[in-house]
Amino acid sequence: MRVHVRQITYQAAGINSYELVHPDGEDLPEFTAGSHIDFFFRDGSVRQYSLCNSPKERHRYLIAVLRERDGRGGSQALHERVHVQRQVRIGGPRNHFRLEEEAKRHLLLAGGIGVTPMIAMAMRLRDIGADFMLHYCTKDKTSTAFPREISDLIEQGHAILHHDGGDPRQGLDIEQLLRDYQDGTHLYYCGPAGFMRAAEKASAHWPPGTVHFEYFAASASPKATITKEELGALGDESVGIGFQIKIASTGKSYFVPNNKSIVQVLAENGIHVEVSCESGLCGTCTTRYLDGQVDHQDLVLEDDERANYLTLCCSRAKSDVLVLDL
Fold this sequence. Notes:
Elements: E1 2-12, E2 15-21, E3 35-40, E4 46-50, E5 61-66, H1 74-81, E6 87-90, E7 94-95, E8 105-111, H2 115-127, E9 132-138, H3 147-155, E10 159-163, H4 174-179, E11 185-190, H5 193-202, E12 211-213, H6 228-234, H7 236-239, E13 243-247, E14 253-256, H8 262-268, E15 286-291, E16 294-295, E17 309-311, E18 316-317, E19 321-324
Parallel strand pairs: 8-9, 8-11, 9-10, 11-12, 13-19
Antiparallel strand pairs: 1-2, 1-6, 2-5, 3-4, 3-6, 3-7, 13-14, 15-17, 15-19, 16-18
């Protein structure tokens, strides 16, 4: 859909928020806390940004973007080229980071720009009268986004700020916070790579289904340690011999080498699959498989979903052949 940029607001050092509205003033498609939208750029690239306003606000979408000078270019393009009144193209909201609203208690952990989905979650939890606490970790006051919203949550007893001055050891003790699991509590966390690793390690003993997280960059994933270009440069002998995919509807098989994704091989053979992030972060290319063993590399599918589905942009095969329901 096409939307207008109605307002751009400075939120913190390097972070702007962008208010997007319907060109004719109509309501936008509804969304749930934890949702994100796809942002389409003129060069054909797509980036995902979390919605950080209250889900009850149908008149606008609000995203916040940290300008990353060493990123893939999307954040810089937004900061430099997107201005008020400009029309931009986005995809409708999707959610792979849902709130479990029936939980007794909700614990939200945010590091840096990872606060964006947590703001929407906090607004929703406050609206339904849920028991929740947000721990927001930043370097200092100047790097703390959404100061008004965070201040309100602090006053209401729903948020605690942690400034570490650039040294995580001086900030929130995640291990201590998550050491003792309280019955009925659900954990949600999002932040930079080190923050994510710390939260994952500290919550490893929590019951299955009570821990939820979202990576806001593929590089934060412990599996994303090598690029496609680097993989190709290693050569087949260093990383295996590839695998076959079989299309169930036609019976045709195709070889997937180690320097190409399933999506790329399908495209080369005239089979179009819709993709977006190409990093296993959004779930756009989720597809059912009928036979074979999958080496799941995504960050969106739940364990029960992985028994039947894979993401074509990044999943590989443990077996010689994967049969795809295409």
